[in-house]
Amino acid sequence: KEAQTQQKLANVVVLATGGTIAGAGASAANSATYQAAKVGIEQLIAGVPELSQLANVRGEQVMQIASESITNDNLLQLGRRVAELADSADVDGIVITHGTDTLEETAYFLNLVEKTDKPIVVVGSMRPGTAMSADGMLNLYNAVAVASSKEARGKGVLVTMNDEIQSGRDVSKMINIKTEAFKSAWGPLGMVVEGKSYWFRLPAKRHTMDSEFDIKTIKSLPDVEIAYSYGNVSDTAYKALAQSGAKAIIHAGTGNGSVSSRVVPTLQALRKDGVQIIRSSHVNAGGFVLRNAEQPDDKNDWVVAHDLNPQKARILAMVALTKTNDSKELQRMFWEY
Ligand SMILES: NC(=O)C[C@H](N)C(=O)O
User: Which residues belong to any copy of the L-asparaginase N-terminal domain (predicted)?
Assistant: First the structure.
């Protein structure tokens, strides 16, 4: 009987990349002062014996780094491994343990490039496992629960933090000291409670199976950089980024991706030189940048990132530029993804 139940469980692979969920501090009181990326995947899985009731879980250490240092090469390496596993008949779902600082970028990247409807769930923690009230165990348990469920299929890359199921496209780290750090301007897709998922809405944007991007055809990612803006901003950073070879610059603008009059001429000139200018917003709760509002984008031949924050706009721009350098095509992609 037990063997039969074992067989019915889904097969879930946990790909570990490091982060605070693999962090360790000097004492249980250290919830904010600790070293990330210390604990190996076998120990993480062994720390949550209840996982074995949810799925047949095995782990793989893909890398062991704090996520602020994830490079484009790391993204490609992880993306390729996810694709290989998604292609395996004996894998039903994939969980990725990840630092929270760039978790939203990796989740969105995978959401764009993985051609699978199998659940891919990215998860991290705000406190290291050594701290009192560590959140990693429950977040990992919830991630495996979602990854092993049939209902999670076809919903794009997901993020489980703080009992919520978020869309990897929408979610962003909004605060760095609370366990309720991950929010989406458009709300979570569902909740996961005691190993069971409760769904409330679906992502509307193109992702995974319905995406025109495929990790298997992406050899490298082009250089896309971000310039942070404010009223008195100078054009030094924009010019330097273009000179160092950036194919696109994400303007992390004020409000509606607005551009200080001090740098408008430089951005127009850079576009004439071939650099794509993509207007995003650094407002805290989520920007909403509209074309030809604040700036004449048609005349300038600029692109707007709409609701994508600067770091997510950078991810889409890199992936999109592997296909096209046409600003109209880029703008289409920014509406669709
Ligand atoms: N909470 C965390 O995971 C933060 C850590 N710096 C990381 O992103 O790896």
Answer: 11-199
